Records
---
Amino acid sequence: MTARIIDGLLLSQQLRAEVAERTAELTARGYQPGLAVILVGNNVASQIYVRNKIKACNDNGLYSVYDCYTDDLTEADLLTRIGVLNSDPKIHGILVQLPLPPHINAYKIIEMIAPEKDVDGFHIANAGALMTGKPLFRPCTASGVLKMLEYQGIPLAGANAVVIGRSNIVGKPIAMLLVQADATVTICGRKTRDLAVHTRSADIIVAATGKRNLVTASMVKPGATVIDVGISRDDDGKLCGDVDFASVREVAGYLTPVPGGVGPMTITMLLISTIEAADRAAGGNGCDCTRLSGGLCSTRLQTLLI
Ligand code: NAD
């Protein structure tokens, strides 16, 4: 069997056409969706991610602000800046690129973002509400993964899903969304005794570790769906994921590539979250945002904020 490739670039292009259309509608009503992206320090990978996010805003008609600080920025100054963005009506979404330099407490910074502008979905109000299935925003990578599975029509209810990686910002939210879709979910991490025992019985494997070639063909059940979230570089400096693409392709039913898989979907879901936030600011009823991503309506927002 040769796996069908789930093309994240293609799906992103389709969704971004809707993003641009919806952005134009909101802009015409005086609510151009606006995203503020903050980068502190000179982490090369972060600089690339941030540039791609700003470019995606520009390409699709969103307003964007890019704050790029040197790594001697104080925590107090960053908190102040977020406070200003929280009350800026042109900004509907605020994203602080992680990791932050060690002298800045990332938890404190994320908690400073107004939950209704927390398009990354990392604020405790949204992370907590994810548990109940009703966050204002779902973390972008996790919702991108679910979007890819839905788009491909992969059955989730009753499926055995294994998520490898259990970080707060990637692995756990993916697992939570799979649980909400009625999958039976196993979460594996570094201390998992025998990873292959779990993955071999999985209908869906989501690998999110950053460990190159962690998932090999012998760990995959024939016909399974394999989603590769990981990003690392091979010995030649080429981007690669957690999955040994060449061998797993011969066993899996569906497989996402790196690059061109989950990465573009993460950015697309960020744009969608920003549109949802702008729609709520415009007093929208949420129907329009659900068309794109199954987001919450503004009445739901009001319920959550009181
Ligand atoms: P992290 O370092 O915070 O977490 C990695 C997780 O993987 C941990 O829970 C750890 O226990 C687990 N892990 C590590 N080695 C393992 C092993 N050998 N076996 C089982 N589990 C193991 O990283 P993160 O922020 O969760 O990101 C994970 C990966 O996803 C990274 O490569 C990151 O670059 C990538 N990422 C991709 C996107 C995207 O849009 N494609 C977005 C965010 C993160």
---
Amino acid sequence: MGPDRPATIPAAKFGTTLDRMRFTSALGYLLLLATAGALPARPSPNRDARVEDLLQQMTLEEKSGQLNQYSAGQPTGPGTHRDSYETMIASGQVGSLLNVTRAEEVNRYQRIAVERSRLHIPLLFGLDVIHGFRTIFPVNLGLSSTFDPALIEETARVAAEEAAAQGIRWTFSPMVDVARDARWGRIAESAGEDPYLGSIMARAYVRGYQGRQLHDPTSILACAKHFVGYGAAEAGRDYNTTDISERSLRQVYLGPFHASAEAGVATFMSAFNSLDGVPASANAFTLHDVLRGEWGFSGLVVSDWGAVEETISHGIAADGATAARKSFLAGVDMDMESGLYVSELPGLVRSGAVPRQELDESVRRVLRLKVDLGLFENPYAPVDGSATVRPRAESRGLAQRAAEESFVLLKNAAPQGQAPILPLASRPGRTIALIGPLADSARDMLGCWSAQGIPSDVITLRTALAERTAAEGMRLLYAEGSKILGNDRSGFDEAVRVARKADVAILALGEQGDRTGEGASRAHLDLDGQQEKLLEAVHATGKPVIVVLFSGRPLTVAWAAEHANAIVAAWFPGVEAGPALVRMLFGDVNPSGRLTATWPRAVGQEPLYYNALNTGRPTPPAVDAREVTSGDATSIGAYRFTSRYIDERNAPLFPFGHGLSYTTYAYSATSAGARRISAAAISGGRASVKVSASVTNSGKREGTEVVQCYIRLTGTSVARPASELKGFQRIRLAPGETRRVEFVLTREELSFWNIQMKSVVEPATLEARIAPDSTRGAGVSVIIEP
Ligand code: BGC
């Protein structure tokens, strides 16, 4: 831009930077004026011209630099094989940085790119904004338990606004890996085990992050990760091998990724795992054939951290150049943290091992996103980014609502002759004992990916309960009881003492926040440390016991499930943990969360998921219950040679979709609009199967029920799961109110990958069931005719 820059553009915003930026046309200049003022931001119509103009000027090194992403905070300088970032940015060797978290730092690096690099191309800043940026919401598994995509979209929007205010315009979220194994730590970041629900949640996150258009300064790029199969890590061990049949890949694991692509997600991240012997970050079948070819994805693919280099450990590359070549040619555009693209791609192109056009195409993808985000016009974080540093009151309000909706009431029994223990009665003079290592642990409430969340923003259960009990003239006694980990039982006496003085004991137990998420797989899913013993000791006082479980995964809590009066799965609820829990415990809100991942009885059942195939020798559920509980599990009864364990039931402790309420719901039988319908008509979009049921609030409180619709298809060319979620609706019902709930099953719900590996609607018998969870409800049969 020339020296005749009009004085009306605030100098602080554009200053010397834009004086030096290249604007190749008068139109670009006019656009700058438009975006600098109050005019609505719009994608640049000359995006492609600008990108091509830049491409023509770029050297091979600069092009490879655009495909290089480094993490701030990683060592640079002598001995690291890496220049300082300042030097590399100035010489055009870095296209994107991750893990820069604050506006001032973003702007410092950006100034180097925009002012000192030859072509003045701005950097793109990325970060793991997973369940909130500064306002931390429940972990994603908890968010999915809300069955409320609109709410999830709102949380993603708030996260985007907070991150964008600091100049972060790219989040590595949503993680849309289907997670069927509770041992895998990253189940906490997932929407659980169901691809249908996962697809709906994926779309919600994408909409929330990306907003209506990327040019909006509060929009950030979303990233569907980890492509693909990462959640199927063998034995639940993070980064482990996966071996997934093409049918399962298409039917289960690809679904939420495809949904993300259809929702317009701007970027994908290639995964760490090998899939069928080919590392996912060098997998031409998934990255090229499926993602680009079948789905027509035109956005950017970034590798996971160091995954390009890790192809060497996988054993398919002997050196960095081969690793870079294989990943790049398979379809990974940008290399996160290996540094191999920037060092190897120029040579690979010169030698002809990598076609120049392919390099250009990947660079185009990066530059287009930078243009789309408006980074050329507004490269810097808003100067007043610090104004949003504290979570706003409305954001905290949303965090509280999200937490309230995420809680799953797993059990709520009535002590002899009384009403169920929850909600707690608030009677002056009553005493509550709050016990356990998670009752007052602010840090753990933030869960595994807390971006810029800080513990001092968290209101713990202890703080909120103290306030509530004081306001109601009740007494709160507190004892930590034990740590989460370790062997120390010295706090037990105090815990038992306070329990004895109380009318009811609340035990806050579970996992440490950072023992979930990445690199946090577990071979044991029991309560850590001495917590179960603590629970047993408090239970032995004879006082009613409520267990509030904080975790990023299903746990094996069979003893608690049998002995505690009530159990709440609270996940890691975020900054409003305490107030949300107190409102739920006292019945100000009626729990409506439902499990999106199956809770096993024993770790040996894993991977345990509801939408499994039936097998040729299914064990009838009644037999499953009877034989093990009768102590006759090893008997050579008629069911010995059915698919079962000899030392444990098949059934989970708590099934997918389970969640209680303070009211009760009654379901009518499911009925269908028509009992015969043509597969061709469904395929062609001319017909659908309509099923409905009446749901009545049969209790005394208003409540929100998550009405679920499951199907089973039989008589098909390949076996289909015994139960598959194909619809859900959250409905609010007053006491006594009845609502007719209808689900429309179309091609999308009824098609599957058949024996010819085609996604089709086949002639079949359809059984559809409208039910409160994945195990209940009587189905209606519909014949899908040829
Ligand atoms: C994780 C990704 C994450 C990336 C960047 C990796 O280790 O697997 O999910 O986005 O780091 O922090």
---
Amino acid sequence: MPKVYLLDYVAGNVRSLVNAIEKCGYVVEWIRSPEDVPKAEKLILPGVGHFGHCLSQLSAAGFLPAIRAHIDAGKPFMGICVGLQALFSSSAEDADCPGICLIPGSLDRFDDSVKAVPHIGWNNASCPTNPTLYGLSPDSKYYYVHSYKYPYVKGELESHGWAVATGTYGTETFVGAVAKGNVLATQFHPEKSGVAGLRVIRSFLDGSGAKALAEHLPQKSNIAAELVPKDGLTRRVIACLDVRTNDQGDLVVTKGDQYDVREKGSDRNVRNLGKPVEMAKKYYEQGADEVTFLNITSFRDCPVADLPMLEILRRTSETVFVPLTIGGGIRDTVDVDGTKVSALEIATMYFKSGADKVSIGSDAVIAAEEYYNAGKTLFGNTAIEQISKAYGNQAVVVSIDPKRVYVPKQEATRHATLKTKFPGPKGEEYCWYACTIKGGRETRDLDVVELTQAVEAMGAGEILLNCIDKDGTNSGFDLELINQVKGAVRIPVIASSGAGNPGHFDEVFRETTTDAALGAGMFHRGEYTVQQVKDYLAGKNLVVRKFEGEF
Ligand code: 1PR
């Protein structure tokens, strides 16, 4: 099989990229020192996390001149995400750290005063002068996750000979991909962009993208006059699989109501709704924008290296080319042989097995309590801080399991209350949401506003907002809870718990500013498919991404 060389310079969650390359019929060889770069014919620079962290690692290891020499020699080069950003001169993310300076210009941050940042989700990469640039399609969507971007100014990069594809988030149009001669760079993750992304990788690897570009050099004069670009971000629909071992010892997808996953009969078996890997693939093929696995029991008795979810991730990531999140048990722990294992080490195992994000539940609540007890001081030692520092904050989701607590009036509690349309059993008109740990078994004196603001300060990139009262009820999302949390933080929020039909997704997207919505039971029980939800949303004029078929 033909080879492609991947630059291995930081701990990165590159398993999905390796899987995508293999799916295109190539094998990956690793470049681990600058001396190895000249042997690469085709070189890929994957980028994760922080611009300064990435560039300083590359620089300290002596890679920058070697990469530059590879590009200057006219050999094929592809940069992904921070790998695109690295080609520019600098970034506001770390003003002291210079880039590779192949493209003059400095990246800036998305404006978070009117929208969630990071920009997470499926957006355009459209190039009016060259619509099929490197296999791109104006009808496809691509998966982005980033806070910094190069702002698009029409004609600027084109005047230096670059073909440019753009996306628009809110009112900000940014560079989604650039190509010139032997160089292709994408701000989006092609390896996580389904079939649309695999086409881009293949056109880089087989040389067809560069060939077509050479035959169709953009002319300054033919940059099409565009209409004002529209926000291209789609409504994200996520399928969630709660996974645990059943009483027979098999790992199964389960689903309860209000977190009780056992059957109602006398034997109280764990409800078995199917096999995790097969179900994840099914949802990918129905058009799920992401798949989340929650390990709802911590498998405490097995060695950490044998965590059953690792194998599930490895197998799923071979066939599912959308982002995979894994949650459950991510905390500092002690292995069965007495060895201490940090949350970062557990997260690293998950990333190496194919996860793109990890989701932290109980440990985030404890960390938030300590944060407030220390007068809102951060010491850098929490799981959230350590994992987001190593992998970028987009890789850290905090999963919250709140419960409604009713109070007769606002003054009855120190917590952030809201006036509810659904009064409590004694007619209470106010409520607040208490955070829980251990899968809802223990309620803490911490509300969702406190928790979400604390974890945002620690570097969490996204909130997975469950609701124990709504879980498994099929009665729709808790819109009041979602609006309260959206008003408290700037990072994206995934609404979860209560989805029972496609109309509930439409409702949550219209009546809240949620960034994504998640369903579980309604998909597992076969009541609706992800595709039906998306068709329904499209019928209501909400922009969604469609599954593009087999690669
Ligand atoms: O605390 O870091 O070990 O993480 C444990 C994780 O497992 C947490 O994210 C927690 O939400 C989850 N979890 C623990 N126990 C349960 C349980 O059900 N007994 N499941 C559980 C959480 C809620 C969602 C569900 C939505 C949508 N399940 O995952 O998918 O509520 O359901 P619906 O659409 O059917 O209403 P840690």
